[in-house]
Fold this sequence. Notes:
Layout: E1 3-4, E2 11-12, H1 14-19, E3 21-25, E4 30-34, E5 41-47, E6 50-57, E7 60-68, E8 73-76, E9 80-85, E10 88-93
Antiparallel strand pairs: 1-2, 3-4, 4-5, 5-6, 6-7, 8-9, 9-10
Amino acid sequence: MLIPCLACESRFRPEEYFQACTDYNRGLDLVSWTCPSCGNRDDFRVLPGELGFGYPRRGRFDVHVKLPVPGLRRQRGELRLDITLGAGVWRVPTRIRQPA
């Protein structure tokens, strides 16, 4: 299975794709990802068996596009999101935000 970048349409194996995740926003339940090919940054939500792409709006994350990824699972931790697909497990840390 290959997962595409929605901006440049490059395709990545799951290990390449999920290693490019930069942080997890626990409040909005979204993962930030930067494409290794074009540098585009996307936000998505990990859902059972799919990735949900969209935009933060009015204090929540609206999913507009769903991409099927059979077997995809998630587990929220205290300061991270664990993404599981087959034998692969990727831990995406929560970025600690400093008060203004």
